Amino acid sequence: MNDTTTTNPNVPGYLRGVAEDFDRLGRQLARASAKNAFAAVTRIAVERVPSARSASITTLSHNRFATAASSDDVAREADAIQYELGSGPCVDAIVEHTIYQPKDLATDERWPEYGRRVADELGLRSMLSFRMNLEETTLIAGLNFYADEPNAFDEQDLAEGLLLTTHAAQSVMVAHLRERVDNLERALTSNRDIGTAVGVLVAQHKLTRDQAFDLLRIASQNTNRKLHDVALDVIDTGALDVTPHGR
């Protein structure tokens, strides 16, 4: 029998706090873009893990690492050193799909140059780095926590970070997919309007559909306007201006 809740009366409160914060994160991300979703995650990360001085999210796209969001400039600078060196806990956590928890960066033999630099230049001594599972996007990402003291993160921080990483990844994917849906809806609307404009030109000028579409493209090029905007004018007025507009 699992009697954790009876031996540790703080567990129900802790779990309730996790649930409430995750609900709050979900509300913050509900209307956020993918970029803003990353920023919301880093804000909540430092709240949920009080041992952390800073938090950041590293992304990997087209073989290039970048900091998508950070709670402060210290985290951003610590990330940048890893990108410069091509090695460090957050870089390796992403590449190796694992979790890294260096207890003392100043003496950790896995990243000697990185550890020395962040300790000397930024005063950082310990980290937690998790890879975020963003399967439905083109991004690979990782959540990083930084602390000033050696061995700053305990097992509860590790569990908290893992839960936050999992939930955050789902929220970011929702935001990313919502953007894709919005873009597709805009594209469909634009295509329908262009198709309607083509129909207007075909009916008025006895053109083929290809000829009508070519005229729309010529008008777009000559007037330096988006094809969709030209199409809307045709729908509204029935007229099409293909005269080059110099300036």
Short description:
The protein has helices spanning 4-7, 10-29, 34-48, 73-85, 89-96, 112-122, 155-205, 209-223, 227-237; strands at 54-61, 64-70, 99-100, 126-132, 140-147. By secondary structure, the protein is of the alpha+beta class.
Commentary on this structure:
This protein is an alpha+beta fold and 247 residues long. It folds into two domains: 11-175, GAF domain (Beta-Lactamase), CATH 3.30.450.40; 182-237, Arc Repressor Mutant, subunit A (Orthogonal Bundle), CATH 1.10.10.10. The chain is 60% helix and 13% strand. It has nine helices and five strands; from the N terminus they run H-H-H-E-E-H-H-E-H-E-E-H-H-H. The protein has helices at 4-7, 10-29, 34-48, 73-85, 89-96, 112-122, 155-205, 209-223, 227-237, and strands at residues 54-61, 64-70, 99-100, 126-132, 140-147. The chain has a five-stranded antiparallel beta sheet with strand order 2-1-5-4-3, with helices on both faces. Helix 7 crosses helix 8 and helix 7 crosses helix 9. The radius of gyration is 26 Å and the shape is elongated.
State the main characteristics.
247 residues, alpha+beta, Beta-Lactamase, Arc Repressor Mutant, subunit A
User: Helical amount among residues, as a percent range?
Assistant: 55-70%
- Low-confidence segments, ≥5 residues, pLDDT <50? 1-9
First-to-last CA distance = 81 Å
Q: Order of strands side by side in the largest beta sheet? A: 2-1-5-4-3
Query: Multimeric state of these chains?
Result: single chain
Query: What form results from the Cα inertia axes?
Result: elongated
Strand runs, count: 5
SSE order, one letter for each helix or strand? HHHEEHHEHEEHHH
Strand residue content: 5-15%
Distinct helical segment count = 9
The level-1 CATH class of the largest domain: Alpha Beta
The Rg value, from CA coordinates, equals 26 Å
* CATH topology description of the largest domain: Beta-Lactamase
Total individual domains = 2
Structural class: alpha+beta
Tell me the name of the CATH homologous superfamily of the largest domain: GAF domain
